[in-house]
Amino acid sequence: MAAYSLLITHSPFDLSKTLAAQSFASELTAQGHTLNNIFFYGEGTHHANALVQLPTDEYQWHHQWKRIQASSECALLVCITAAVKRGLVGDSEARETGVEMANIHAPFVQAGLGEFFTQLHKCEKLVQF
């Protein structure tokens, strides 16, 4: 079995790509592969925004990423530079900048590109959505 890393660069509102990525991630673990991490980069950082409130009759993509993380125990890494440029901050950035509330919450964690590249050394395959 192979170890995978996923790179998410599309907006969560591109629902067909979001569904494809989440389906792929779920199938990996169902087939016995390892999902080491999912790295959210560029517009993909919006997947980590805990403050997005979708109507209950719409697909809840944020909650699905959390389910995938819980079942696969993979790391949900959010590019810190790309996220901050888009107004997405974790607890430490919120404190540093005086923002009242962080909008990136666990199990999503902020990481730099260097950490992502280090994690890639533990994987055989990288798949981008």
Describe the structure.
- There is one protein chain.
- This protein has a single domain (3-128), classed as Hypothetical Protein Ychn, Chain: A (3-Layer(aba) Sandwich), CATH 3.40.1260.
- A five-stranded parallel beta sheet has the order 4-3-2-1-5.
- It is built from five helices and five strands; from the N terminus they run βαβαβααβαβ.
- Strand 2, helix 2 (61-72) and strand 3 form a beta-alpha-beta unit.
- 38% of the residues lie in helices and 20% in strands.
- The chain has 129 residues and is of the alpha/beta class.
- It has helices at 15-30, 61-72, 80-85, 91-97, 113-120, and strands at residues 3-8, 34-40, 75-79, 108-111, 125-128.
- The mean pLDDT is 95.
**What is the radius of gyration?**
14 Å
CATH class: Alpha Beta
For the biggest β-sheet, the strand order reads: 4-3-2-1-5
Task: Return the CATH topology.
Answer: Hypothetical Protein Ychn, Chain: A
Global geometry: globular
Brief write-up:
This is Sulfurtransferase complex subunit TusD. With 129 residues, the protein is of the alpha/beta class. 38% of the residues lie in helices and 20% in strands.
Give the helix/strand layout.
Layout lengths: L2 E6 L6 H16 L3 E7 L20 H12 L2 E5 H6 L5 H7 L10 E4 L1 H8 L4 E4 L1
Parallel strand pairs: 1-2, 1-5, 2-3, 3-4
Helix pairs in contact: 1-2
Main attributes of the structure:
globular, alpha/beta, 129 residues, 20% strand, Hypothetical Protein Ychn, Chain: A, 5-stranded parallel beta sheet
